[in-house]
Design goal:
Layout (H helix, E strand, L loop, with lengths): L6 E4 L26 E10 L9 E10 L11 E6 L10 H12 L4 H8 L5 H13 L1 H11 L10 H12 L6 H9 L6
Parallel strand pairs: 1-4
Antiparallel strand pairs: 2-3, 3-4
Helix pairs in contact: 1-2, 4-5
Bound molecules: zinc ion.
């Protein structure tokens, strides 16, 4: 894994807005060193729930693997993303998941966005769903390690995958976030 693509996923921020991970318990995803990690800058993005567009949401944390001192890290930095964030995308995982649920119910992407009053342009959602379609085989093979695909009446591979996601993480509220947290990789890699 090169330093550019190295990243980790953590759970949602707690009440104190602190991200729930301890650097001491993590290894560098680039060089594997332990106890070399330091918090760097926080990653922020627009809060899609704030319709005035002024809200800022912490998307994650940059972390630096220190190459100073005796422990000898690699000097690279990487990102730890919150599970509900889709790295490199403005739409959050829960929003994508809501749209996918609507599609599973038989609606169109356009109808889903209008019905949900999504705070994103329709083209953005189209783009995201297209990206997701391009990655279905990787997603499904990962999911198959966790749970066999459920019997499905759907003929669209996208919708079959949505069902597979839901079956793989039945207790969660958002299967896209659960997927990222469980596999420690972005859904739309
Ligand atoms: Zn390192």
């Amino acid at each position: 894994m090169d330093a550019k693509s190295a990243q980790k996923i953590c759970g949602q921020p707690g009440r104190a807005r602190k991200l729930p991970f301890l650097l001491k318990q993590l290894c560098c995803p680039n060089c594997g060193a332990a106890e070399t990690l330091n918090r760097h800058s926080k990653l922020y993005g627009n809060d899609p729930a704030d319709r005035r567009g002024q809200g800022r949401l912490q998307r994650g944390q940059r972390v630096w693997c220190s190459d100073r001192g005796e422990r000898g890290g690699c000097g690279c930095s990487f990102s730890i993303f919150v599970a509900e964030v889709l790295p490199r995308h403005t739409v959050s995982g829960p929003w994508l998941w809501r749209v996918l649920q609507e599609l599973l119910g038989g609606g169109s992407t356009k109808a889903a966005c209008e019905g949900l009053q999504a705070p994103f342009p329709l083209e953005t959602i189209y783009h995201l769903v297209t990206r997701l379609r391009e990655r279905l085989s990787q997603i499904r093979s990962r999911l198959s390690c966790r749970c066999q695909p459920p019997a499905s009446a759907q003929s669209d591979p996208l919708l079959q995958t949505v069902e597979h996601l839901r079956a793989s993480f039945p207790k969660g509220l958002c299967s896209t976030a659960d997927y990222q947290l469980h596999f420690q990789m972005p859904l739309l890699e």
